[in-house]
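[job 4471] stage=fold_predict status=RUNNING
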Amino acid sequence: MKRILIALAVFASVQIADAQVKTPEAAKKAVEAAKAASENEKKAVKVATWTKLAESYLDAYNAPAGSAWVGASKQELQLLMGNEKPLSVENAVLNGEPCTKEIYENKEFYFNNAGQLTMINVTKPVFENALDEALAAYKKAYEVDVKKSKAKDIAAGLDNISKKYLDEGMNRYMLQDLAGASVLFEKSAEAAATEPLAKVDSTALYNAGFTAWAVKDYERAKKFFESCVEVGYYYEGGEVFAKLADVYKNLGDEKKSAEILEQGFVAYPQSQSILIGLINYYIESGENTDRLFVLIDEAKKNEPNNASLYYVEGNIYNQLGDKEKAVEAYYKCAEINPDYEYGYIGAGVMYYNLAIELQDKAANEFDDAKYQAILVEFEQALMNALEPFEKAYAVSKDESLKVNVAEYLKNIYYRFISKGAEYEAGYNKYDEVVRTGKAI
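[job 4471] inference complete, writing structure tokens
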């Protein structure tokens, strides 16, 4: 029943059609003219000279995509693009999803199965470093703007560049170039932090760290995750702490890793990533695991009526192999909050997983007497799972969660269907729930 975290905290910013987009040729000429003006001694002291250069580079950046925008349909693009046709069309996979790729002379369009444009990948830019040059031009504009009369316009330009870097980073991420994505996310954060915008983009910082972590560039990842902690951005219930702790572990600093995990646990005791990291640390290090219960007790003092803390305690006991105390903690959840279903789910999943382990063990046992003994344990574990799952199903008001629980119950009742009508009825009930996706 674990929740899967999304990889990144950002989606590509929405691009909209722009009837004024220059052709690549016109955009290149405009940059050359604006650059020549910036090299003129008299014009170089004017703010407008540098903002014009920045805007020209941005136009050049946008030019290859033309009037296309993410979210457009194939029909809309056909009307806008006129005679511009793809050189070839092929099936592709983007971020794990099947799609269609149209290849043009200077770009690639990726369409989802609904025929919507999901990504524009420019393969032949007008200038390789257009965004870098635009950023440098805005910095120069702010420098020569002594009265700061154009600070608002310059900040808007910097914000635009930051978002485009973010889009480019997402493109690299979807194309599985995670190292390249990390660099672009860092540039997004740097553009946002540039005066006069001077904004901390915690999303870009996290993404830069996440993608660096994913390619095992731990020193680089450490820099960004530590920046996230400094600005108070912890992402998805404390995931930054879990990632930063893993970074320190891979860099060989186990003590620092544990400190980060404890820091995260105090703020996010329900985080499974943090909890599992702590449990693994204490088990692997041989240190006293009682420290885990000290931490959870501190959390209970702060929130005595928080049923989820007893669920966490149950998970700790379960991971440590003390199933009796785990069940005690799981059932305590219902005493604190009768509507909290996760305690029952925790107990049910614990017994169900034990049954799976015993089933695998039995499959590899060739001694018949031992096999039969394991089979008895297996069936008892399944039977033990029945009651908490039934209680979870009865208590829960979340239909999707009830359907997930029904999947477990269906399998258990099927195992015992030969025992009588009660089990056959149970199987039929939960089989219908699973088939229809609707709780009864």
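[job 4471] summary: The chain is about 65% helix and 5% strand.
[job 4471] exit 0
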